[in-house]
What we know:
The complex is a heterodimer of chains A (about 110) and B (about 110). Chain A is built from no helices and twelve strands. Chain A has strands spanning about 5, 10-15, 20, 25, 30-40, 45-50, 55-60, 65-70, 75-80, 85-95, 105, 110-114. In chain A, about 35% of the residues are buried. Helix content of chain B is about 0%, strand content about 55%. Chain B is built from no helices and eleven strands. In chain B, the strands form two sheets. In chain B, strands 2, 4, 5, 6, 9, 10 and 11 form a seven-stranded mixed beta sheet that branches. A four-stranded antiparallel beta sheet of chain B has the order 1-3-8-7, with no helix packed on it. The N and C termini of chain B lie far apart (about 35 Å). Chains A and B meet through β5, β6 and β10 of A and β5, β9 and β10 of B.
Amino acid sequence: AQSVTQLGSHVSVSEGALVLLRCNYSSSVPPYLFWYVQYPNQGLQLLLKYTTGATLVKGINGFEAEFKKSETSFHLTNPSAHMSDAAEYFCAVGIPYGNNRLAFGKGNQVVVIP
Amino acid sequence: DGGITQSPKYLFRKEGQNVTLSCEQNLNHDAMYWYRQDPGQGLRLIYYSQIVNDFQKGDIAEGYSVSREKKESFPLTVTSAQKNPTAFYLCASSIVGELFFGEGSRLTVL
């Protein structure tokens, strides 16, 4: 079974500073990897995903993530935090041709300090 | 617009009552899911369905029931057997592994 580890439930970052959210996964087969964002009292929206091909994936709002197989990681970055980036972020792992079940991490609550 | 519609957005229930949360999608996706979200615990899978008239238990199915009579609809019933039903419930559908989520339903048991 797949699993995801996200450390640090709350992350504070200054406006304009680098945002770095760490995600490590466990999977017995080459995985699909996702980052989702959730604003208060809303559903989850896809930020970016890795399925195959280029290991550096670019998403919406300046976010990007790099799949590193040797480190079993899929860390999310944004070079410059905006106030609008304050939200909760979830990393998720799935497998190709499976039953489409995704395993989610516990999430990172990002606070942006003006 | 295509998407997933959950209703109601907020729901209050007395202890001992069953309640049904609605989830409708017009994305023509075969697979649908129900997740429960609690603060600091991420998303936990309750039930999922890959095709009409078929569904499987997820990781925390006890106290919940579902049906999948139509491709578009996947309602979730929170029964009185669920010990701690107060939570945020999210419905999703999927294609090629990617999940598309509704806006969620917040259930509070009084």
